[in-house]
């Protein structure tokens, strides 16, 4: 859904830099010999959205309305569209006609952004950047069959002045759940037990496997943490604090880049034929990058702790 929130913020001419600033922490669980699990399933990366920041500091209030009745969602859509407000709908992938992978094949939760309606021809105009950069058409038939899980509405409003001190404190508190030491365990398991073919076995698309899902989440989370810190740096009036935020942001961006490299190497290993020698080389490369992430995460956390002490 993150790409849809960004689209709405751009639509409403508002920033979104703090929306994902507390988006994800990392934890890797050791294997249980009695119930062995894939490495990808033992990477814990729960994603969070800071809707309070979105509302308070960017001036966009988001409300998700739960409903299993398509006709109720239809009424909400018409009301919001009449106010020129886009609406996020939870649409079953089975009824998402532009999704060749899921349409009429797979029932799965999916989201798209409704931006208009053509009642005479009975379809909604939608945006779904995952599959297309074009404006798409969702027929009323597909809408009524697939939209029975609720919708999200947006309201533009006045925003507050940034409370940099408070936000840094809350970001730092959220990072206490980040288990950087378990990254060392992950690095060792990659060397000793990693089998990419086994990790993606049973998934028609490799990108749906837990190992890939979690790596994408982690790269995304650090990218937006870096972006959020840079945003705060540009909005603080104390030069030393601004400098420190810039510096910490660079460290966090480094973590994002490293997670992206790990993901890219795995994708390349899956989609291109690899000799045993190359597989071994890539495995060690992935493990080495994860060790670098561990060191980098510990370094930027220390700097963030130091900044918090100065602020308070």
Please give the order of strands in the largest beta sheet.
3-8-4-5-6-7
Gyration radius (Cα, Å) is 22 Å
- The topology string of helices and strands comes to HEEHEHEEEEHEHHHHHH
Classify the beta-strand content into a percent band: 5-15%
Helix content: 40-55%
Distance between the termini: 35 Å
Walkthrough of the structure:
With 312 residues, the chain is an alpha+beta fold. The chain has two domains: 60-156, Cysteine proteinases (Cathepsin B, Chain A, Alpha-Beta Complex); 164-311. It contains ten helices and eight strands. It has helices spanning 2-11, 51-56, 70-82, 140-146, 164-174, 181-193, 196-199, 210-234, 239-271, 276-311, and strands at 27-28, 43-44, 60-65, 87-92, 109-118, 123-127, 136-139, 151-156. The strands form two sheets. Strands 3-8-4-5-6-7 form a six-stranded antiparallel sheet, with helices on both faces. A two-stranded antiparallel ribbon has the order 1-2. Strand 6 and strand 7 form a beta hairpin. It is flat and about 60 Å long. The protein starts with a helix and ends with a helix. The mean pLDDT is 91.
List keywords for this structure.
six-stranded antiparallel β-sheet, 2 domains, alpha+beta, two-stranded antiparallel sheet, 312 residues, Cathepsin B, Chain A
């Amino acid at each position: 859904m993150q790409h849809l929130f960004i689209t709405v913020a751009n639509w409403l001419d508002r920033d979104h830099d703090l929306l994902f600033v507390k988006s994800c922490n990392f934890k890797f669980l050791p294997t249980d010999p009695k119930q062995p699990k894939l490495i990808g399933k033992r990477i814990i990366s729960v994603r969070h959205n800071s809707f309070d920041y979105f509302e308070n500091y960017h001036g966009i209030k988001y409300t998700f309305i739960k409903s299993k009745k398509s006709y109720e969602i239809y009424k909400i859509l018409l009301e919001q569209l009449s106010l020129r407000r886009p609406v996020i709908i939870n649409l079953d992938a089975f009824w998402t006609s532009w999704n060749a992978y899921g349409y009429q094949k797979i029932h799965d939760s999916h989201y798209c952004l409704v931006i208009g309606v053509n009642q005479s021809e009975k379809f909604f105009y939608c945006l779904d950047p995952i599959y297309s950069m074009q404006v798409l058409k969702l027929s009323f038939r597909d809408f009524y069959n697939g939209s029975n899980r609720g919708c999200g509405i947006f309201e533009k409003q006045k925003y507050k002045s940034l409370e940099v001190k408070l936000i840094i404190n809350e970001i730092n508190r959220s990072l206490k759940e980040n288990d950087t030491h378990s990254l060392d365990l992950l690095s060792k398991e990659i060397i000793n037990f990693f089998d990419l073919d086994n990790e993606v076995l049973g998934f028609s698309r490799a990108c749906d496997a837990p190992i890939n899902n979690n790596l994408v989440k982690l790269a995304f989370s650090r990218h937006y943490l870096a972006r959020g810190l840079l945003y705060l740096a540009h909005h603080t009036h104390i030069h030393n604090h601004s400098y420190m935020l810039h510096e910490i942001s660079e460290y966090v961006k480094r973590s994002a880049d490293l997670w992206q490299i790990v993901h890219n190497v795995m994708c390349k290993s899956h989609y291109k034929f690899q000799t045993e020698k190359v597989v071994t080389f890539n495995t060690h490369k992935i493990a080495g990058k994860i060790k670098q992430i561990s060191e980098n995460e510990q370094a930027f956390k220390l700097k963030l702790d130091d900044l918090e002490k100065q602020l308070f």
